[in-house]
Amino acid sequence: MIETGPDLTLTIALIAGSGVAAQWLAWRLRWPSIVLMMGAGLILGPIWAFVAGTPLVHPSAVFGDYLRPMIALAVAVILFEGGITLNFRELRDASGPVRRMVFLGYPLGWAGAVLALHYVAGLAWDLSAMIGALLTTTGPTVVLPLLRQAKLPGRIASVLKWEGIVNDPIGALSAVFVFEAIRQTALGQDWVQAGMALAFGALIGAALGYGFGAGLSRAFRRGWVPEPMKAPLVLASVLVCFSVADALANETGLVAVTLFGLVVANSRLASIEEMRRFKEGIASILVASVFVVLAADLAPADLLALNAWHFAFVGVFILVVRPVTVALATLGSGLNLKETAFVGVIGPRGVVAAAAAGHLAASLIEVGREDAAILAPLVFITIFISVFGCGFAVSPLAKLLGLSQSGPERLLIVGANPWSLGLADALKKAEVPVTIADTSWRRLRAARLAGHEVHYGEVLSEAADWQLEPARFSALLAASPNDAYNALVCIDYGPELGRSRVFQLSGFDGPIDAEKVEDDPRAIAFTARGRTLIRRGRGYDSLARDWWQGWRFRNTKLTDSYPLETYLKDVGDLPDLVIARMPNGSFHLLGSGRDAPAQPGTIIICFAPPELAVADSEADQLS
Questions:
Q1: How far apart are CA 18 and CA 287, in angstroms?
Q2: Which of 15, 81, 191, 619 is the most buried (most CB within 10 A)?
Q3: Helix, strand counts (H, E) of the chain
Q4: Using CA atoms, how far apart are residues 112 and 116, in angstroms rounded to an integer?
Q5: What 3-state class would DSSP assign to 528?
Q6: Which residues pair with 438 in a beta bridge?
Q7: Per-residue pLDDT at 206
Q8: First CA to last CA distance, the chain
Q9: Which residues on adjacent β-strands are paired with residue 453?
Q10: What is the mean pLDDT, run by run of 10 residues, along the chain of 623 residues?
Q11: Residues paired with 539 in a beta bridge
């Protein structure tokens, strides 16, 4: 019986609070979140126990027999979230190196990991096969932040991104199948009986996963489920699917929920993006909690059980197995030597590996495989070293190999028109790189002639995810004449760039206060649009009219002798302050409620009438 006293309450609060705090701190520091989450668990558990004699958080003691089911349900949701990201149609359109890394790289990496686990770490063949399947995967939850951090070119980013997305569920399924074979033989069954039990479990898991996925997709397409209930229904269905599969055949729930996610991801549902975002939010909390729990539950003796051969395996796995696998898999695929070397070194292990390893190892110990006790600490130390090393090596390595697209932050402008092209020219003078996107090749002609990077096509299309690579951009400005389209673009890119970094022109025509625009019941709700760029809420028609009346963009550089206060006094209230370019190359869109920075060396870009005189001579040169 679990006591519902302060120990339980404090444990839950510390687990959730430290996990989310670790994710936030990782975002602020631009560190790999998985490292800080594992570090939080280790501090609260074995490190605290080593220093104070007893852990601050001891999940096994507090939750007792309920801990395993709780972790199992959390892992089920995490695996479903991994499966729902895999769209086979997108994989068919992927580049050659991506397909080689998926179909050839994974089996080669698995084989290499098994050999290293057996001959270097000293694990039995069956345990090596199970853990090798998990460690070969590179999860998207750790790869995608690294791609944003390093600003990699499209081809390399595509290989690393889709390798993680596709191999995550494949690795989980492979590990579960091997685990089930080990479990059946540990229970005394011969290989024939174990194979029949494995086939039965796979059949049950596949049937339930497909049945739940197909049934849910059909219900959504027929309109049998109201929109507000779709995401909660998916979460409840995942838990039911996992529980039913496990009740019918032990440990097949993970197979069922992974296939469940794959079916839903490939069902062409209009609401799939909303479900993904909801699941990402839930999975984010669960990932943080599972990592803290698994790390905190490690006893100091578990960590001390790791010997030199285990650390030698980590080195061989990261520095030999991974590079050799990538080199063999991508041979003749079009990647050059530098790209192959980079992909070979950057291979952080994923969340699924840690979550599934702790759960499966505990199940094996229960059926008498005491040698499985080393799996959790071995997997944890492998993940920790790989993520820590890749997290801090990705940017320097990309720069060393000449692969990094580092430099000033880049702005994506959606909508090519005279006003947006004038802004792009002003940004070019301020050394702020810009990409202009539009569906009209004719409207992009002036941008191409001016030397700007352009994207011809619909930014809301699936192809744009490959061609535009949203991770390259620091902010977005939707500047088309259509206010509803601008809002749709901002809503689509908001989760990727951050809602505070997507801006759009107002849908109103005239000098209306931006805050009143956002509060006006006739306007698009502020929750369904980007931030208003022009403070006075002026829309496209008003800006276009002023453009044809001679208004232009002016760049003014602040100095010690020409501070912001003087600049604002000179220009008055007539011009629209649009963007501030900081001395370090970053920029800030000066939307509603955001003041211009006063740091000397900052370049202020404003949209001003022709009669405006800029007093500062340096500003005249810049404009």
A1: 12
A2: 81
A3: 29, 10
A4: 6
A5: helix
A6: 456
A7: 84
A8: 74
A9: 435
A10: 59 88 81 78 86 84 82 78 66 66 86 93 88 81 67 72 73 75 72 69 84 89 83 87 83 78 77 65 75 79 84 92 91 82 83 72 79 83 84 80 71 93 93 92 91 88 67 86 88 82 74 51 68 75 89 91 88 83 87 77 89 48 41
A11: 506
| Residue 305 structure tokens | 């059980």
Question: 487, 504 in Cβ contact below 8 A?
Answer: yes
Q: Say what the pLDDT of residue 435 is.
A: 93
Q: Which two tokens stand for residue 470?
A: 């949203």
Both tokens of residue 544? Answer: 């276009």
CA pair distance 455, 449, nearest whole angstrom: 14
Please check whether residue 591 is in contact with residue 531, taking contact to mean a CB–CB distance below 8 angstroms: yes
CB-based contact 248:71 (threshold 8 Å): no
Query: Residues for the chain: how many in total?
Result: 623
Contacts of 72 (CB under 8 A, 6+ apart): 242, 246, 253, 359
| 286-304: burial string, b at 16+ Cβ within 10 Å, e else | bbbbbbbbbbbbbbeebbe
Interatomic CA distance for residues 234 and 557, integer angstroms: 53
Are 117 and 293 spatial neighbours (Cβ–Cβ below 8 Å)? no
- The SS3 assignment for 603 reads strand
pLDDT of res. 421:
94
* pLDDT of the residue at 180: 73
Q: What are the phi and psi torsion angles at 269 (to 5°)?
A: -85, 135
**What pTM value is reported for the model?**
0.65
Q: Which residues partner with 80 through β-bridges?
A: none
Cα dihedral across residues 70, 72, 75, 80: positive or negative: negative
DSSP state letters, 134-167: HHT---HHHHHHHHHHHT--HHHHHHHHHHHHHH
- Are 623 and 555 in contact by the 8 Å Cβ rule? The answer is yes
Tokens of 302: 């578990």
* pLDDT of res. 509: 55
Place of tokens 């070397």: 341
Sequence-distant (≥ 6) Cβ neighbours of residue 343 within 8 angstroms: 101, 156, 159, 160, 326, 330, 335
Cβ atoms of 423 and 489 closer than 8 Å:
no
C-alpha pair distances (Å), 614 with each of 107, 535, 564, 602, 622: 65, 21, 13, 16, 11
What pLDDT score was predicted for residue 111?
92
pLDDT score at 133: 86
Of the candidates 544, 261, 568, the one whose C-alpha atom is nearest the C-alpha of residue 423 is 544
Torsion, Cα 22 27 30 35, to 10 degrees, reads 30
| 415 φψ region: left (φ > 0), alpha (ψ -120 to 50), beta (else) | left
* Matching residue, tokens 């990094």: 404
| Nearest-angstrom CA–CA distance, 567 and 527 | 34
- C-alpha pair distances (Å), 369 with each of 176, 210, 305, 398: 16, 32, 16, 43
Question: Is 426 strand, coil or helix?
Answer: helix
Q: Which tokens hold the place of 278?
A: 């909801």
